[in-house]
Design brief:
about 400 residues; Spore Coat Polysaccharide Biosynthesis Protein SpsA, Chain A; 9-stranded mixed beta sheet; globular; Hexosyltransferase; golgi apparatus; N-acetyllactosaminide beta-1,3-N-acetylglucosaminyltransferase activity; transmembrane; glycosyltransferase
């Protein structure tokens, strides 16, 4: 044991009698502490090792992944398959459930006949859900109209508008108002419209020649050979993200909306310019909906049966319009491969954000459920907002001058 020798206290130079300090007490303490730690580590090592110097922890001789229980709803099961496929730990195990091998046709764009037998009420479901289930795995469709050079100007803001072939008047009203391409508030703005195709069964007149003329004239149409239905909006979203990653990855921000919304482009640019750099990277704002789930009423266009999906929805921004960064768009495209296509496009985007560990942020400037009726003709109200839904082409032509008119004074 370390002991401190006894010394006679000496008066210091100031005249006060102070006790002598034990100079070796610190050294002794450190030595004892080191000895204690060595003994502790030795005991720990002996505990975890057996007599043959092998670890006492037993590694199971058989894999236990067979405990995975397959989901019954068709979408949930397919998502479970993707989760396992993209899980490097589980996917490396040799003995996986047999149902994982039942992946349907080798060509994902062939009709998936599994839906007919695995969705118990398939024959009772609305036609659009049946069609979605048969083609849920297909993500490759021919592009009919492309604009590969539309982003050569490296836009600060890319306005992406979901539209339908017959909506010529809406697209033209947008071009003349909030979607006017060029330099706005010293920032480069580019607009593109996303279109599908009209099938003979939809009883649309042949608009292809008119659409070709529009594309040549304005050079802002993107069209894929997909049936333009409500449940195919998710597919249109994924196809756009793929197009963006190849043709417009340098765009800093994207505002995606329907062709019946009004966007205050000046206010959007002002909002973006005020963002901190770290905030801009993962930006995703809109009219966020939380604690929502699938509708079970067959009369609603949002109807999703329990045989297809069970569970709650993650937070998501209403599909009328939302604003996000170009960097995030590239990440959304990559992660979308890990998320099974879901019939409702804005919910699907929320699922992709959840995969990235992100949550969309609610912004009061997005009014996807409109504003109070008494304010609809108040120009100052529109100046303070970013997006309002819904507005006709005539409304857009009326509201836009209120935004850009300098003589309009607002308190």
């Amino acid at each position: 044991m370390c002991q401190c020798p006894e010394e006679t206290p000496k008066p210091d130079q100031g005249g006060a009698n102070m006790p002598a300090t034990c100079g070796r007490i610190t050294v002794c303490s450190v030595v004892m502490l080191n000895i204690f730690l060595c003994v502790l580590m030795s005991m720990k090592w002996n505990y975890w090792q057996d007599k043959n110097n092998r670890p006492r922890i037993r590694i199971p001789s058989k894999e236990f992944w067979h405990q995975i229980v397959v989901s019954k709803p068709f979408w949930n099961k397919e998502q479970q398959r993707l989760d396992i496929t993209y899980n490097p730990i589980i996917n490396s195990v040799s003995e996986l459930p047999d149902w994982l091998n039942d992946i349907g046709p080798s060509d994902p764009c062939e009709p998936d006949s599994r839906a007919l037998t695995q969705v118990v009420d398939y024959n009772l479901l609305p036609q659009q859900i049946q069609d979605f289930l048969l083609h849920m795995r297909c993500r490759t469709y021919p592009m009919l109209i492309n604009q590969p050079h539309v982003c050569n100007g490296k836009p600060f803001l890319l306005l992406v508008v979901k539209s339908l072939m017959p909506h010529f008047d809406r697209r033209q009203a947008i071009r003349e108002t909030w979607g006017r391409a060029g330099v706005l508030a010293n920032r480069t703005v580019t607009t593109v419209f996303l279109l599908g195709n009209a099938m003979p069964s939809d009883h649309f007149p042949d608009l292809s020649s008119m659409l070709a003329h529009e594309a040549t004239l304005h050079k802002d149409l993107l069209q894929w050979d997909i049936r333009d239905t409500f449940f195919n909006l998710t597919l249109k979203e994924v196809l756009f993200l793929e197009w963006f990653s190849k043709n417009c990855p340098q765009a800093q921000f994207i505002l995606k909306g329907d062709d019946d919304v009004f966007i205050n482009t000046l206010q959007v640019i002002s909002f973006l310019e005020g963002l901190a750099q770290n905030k801009a990277k993962d930006l995703f704002v809109g009219d966020v909906i939380r604690n929502a789930g699938p509708h079970r009423d067959k009369k609603l266009k949002y109807f999703i049966p329990e045989s297809v999906f069970v569970g709650g929805y993650p937070p998501y921004a209403g599909g009328g319009g939302y604003l996000y960064s170009g960097q995030l768009a590239l990440r959304l495209y990559n992660v979308s491969e890990q998320v099974v296509l879901y019939p409702i496009d804005d919910v699907y985007t929320g699922m992709c954000l959840e995969k990235l560990g992100l949550v969309p942020e609610k912004h009061g400037g997005f009014r996807t459920f409109d504003i109070e009726k008494k304010h609809k003709h108040n120009g100052c109200i529109y100046r303070s907002l970013l997006l309002v839904h819904s507005r006709t082409p005539q409304d857009m032509l009326k509201i836009w001058p209120w935004i850009i008119r300098p003589e309009l004074e607002c308190q």
